[in-house]
Design goal:
The longest helix has 16 residues. With 179 residues, this protein is α+β, with helices and mostly antiparallel strands. Strands 1-2-3-6-7 form a five-stranded antiparallel β-sheet. A two-stranded antiparallel ribbon has the order 4-5. A hairpin with a 5-residue loop joins strand 6 and strand 7. It has a single domain, classed as Peptide Deformylase (Alpha-Beta Complex), CATH 3.90.45. It is built from three helices and seven strands. Bound molecules: nickel (II) ion. The site of nickel (II) ion (NI) has 5 residues, from helix 2.
């Protein structure tokens, strides 16, 4: 497994739609493992392939993960990989969650999304699966699937706040000091 570099705002790739994965093979499984290692190392609870500059429809998640020094201690990893995920239905109830993104480091904002989603995808063996995701997993799945469509969680916040955070990252990318 290899840790990959995570691209950040304002990298234009983050705004591009990812292409479907054509084959679930050993090469793809190696990519999944690299993504998991990158996500755990960051640390984060979700990562889309486009965030390591591979614009393919593939996401990984693990909502159980905690840093060893965090409350709750060390828990066994429960990695989930979804190839070509498709949200087939959304619940009516909404939930508010403070989201962050490894491609927008150190910025957090509350986003409201449906608290239940049904997602259809291929697993790492290429087998079709359907899973009902609730609560935080519902939030994470929607956040990651958005990445595959070039959408970011800052698209859900006010334009003023969004412009401010984008401006900050543009300055950072130019090497300017941000106050
Ligand atoms: Ni993200």
């Amino acid at each position: 497994m290899t840790k990959r570099e995570i691209i950040t705002l304002p990298d234009p790739l983050l705004r591009k739609a990812s292409a479907p994965v054509e084959r679930v093979d050993d090469e793809l499984r190696a990519l999944i493992d690299d993504m998991l290692e990158t996500m755990y190392d960051a640390p984060g609870i979700g990562l889309a392939a486009v965030q390591i500059a591979v614009p393919r429809r593939l996401i990984v998640m693990d909502i159980k993960y905690r840093k060893p020094d965090e409350e709750g201690g060390e828990v066994a990893p429960e990695p989930i990989a979804m190839v070509n995920p498709e949200i087939v239905s959304l619940g009516e109830e909404m939930r508010l969650h403070e989201e962050g993104c490894l491609s927008i480091p150190e910025f957090y904002a509350e986003v409201e999304r449906p608290s239940q989603v049904t997602v259809r995808y291929l697993d790492r063996e290429g087998k079709q699966q359907e899973r009902v995701c609730e609560d935080i997993l519902a939030t994470v799945v929607q956040h990651e699937v958005d990445h595959l469509n070039g959408k970011l969680f800052i698209d859900y916040i006010s334009r003023l706040k969004r412009d401010r955070v984008i401006k900050k990252f543009v300055k950072l990318a130019k090497g300017e000091v941000v106050a």
